Amino acid sequence: MITSAPISPFPQIMIQKNTAKKNWVILEIVRDFLHCYVQFMSIYEKYKKNTLKFEDLNKFINDKDPSLPLFNLKESCHILFRYQGEQSCRDEEKLLDLAVGSIFHEAMKIRENLYQLEVYRPRYMQILNRFETSKHERNLLLEFKKIGTRAERRLAESMAEAKRLFQDTLKQLADLLPAYKENTVLIRFLLRNKDLVQKAFGKRKGMEVIADIFPGGLGEAYEVVGRSYLKSEYYDIAAEFFRKALKYRSRDKSLKGLFLYAHGMDGYYRNSYKKSLQSFHQLLPVINGLKKDNGYLERVEEVCRKIGREFLEDKKRKLAYIAFQLADEIRKSLATG
Length: 337
Description:
Shape: elongated
Number of helices: 14
Radius of gyration: 29 Å
């Protein structure tokens, strides 16, 4: 069963005024919609093959289980795009809220009609086929049969409508994503869950959707996420995202510098001092591409001197000399501006 984390533990009012809270709710909306889209398309395929069971729907929508993605999706959209005031969101977001609400109600219709067909119909058909029923009992059973026929028709209609709504809303979501390019937690999620994005949009289209969020395409997307992890000092993850960004912008000296800085810092904190020094040494030719007002170069110098002292304590004088010499070169670069 696909479950969804409850709505972020933030008050359901004035979320729009708190950017961090709003960003998390938007992430939940995108995450839950993608999960719901993929799950519904699986349900639809089972319906077309006549293998759909009520149990399948119960894992998708249940008015008694708010942890399911579709319920949480509806609530998240209402909280962010409906209850925060008319002026707090764009028309495109209001449309998304209406679409999700409509999907939820169509899904409830599907659930109810499938329940009629799977649970009620076999029972009254069994009774109808008995010879001992009285006239008024048979009339009542014939009414149930009509209800079953209507349930079949309504199920088909709701299935088709829900599919159209999901497909149109997926396109609407793709068009809306560039408005959230400053939402780094969302971009992190999309890049770290490419499989989910590609399941929903298709393998090629999924990556295009992410690329279209930024003018610089996927290279910029990977860099933005790399910088966010670097700011949080997750050096290993930052280095990995910078590495991926370099596949699209291999000549970007600033990006190369960020990668080498993150890679070197990761080596330092893993006590892989040689690896760290190698990365910092490779940083020298592109050092001008690394901004000098963010403290990164000062940090590199500090780390090189610490590594040098560690090597001295271990009586590795040659390695200590290399570390100190590298620190001096960084210091010289800082002094010359």
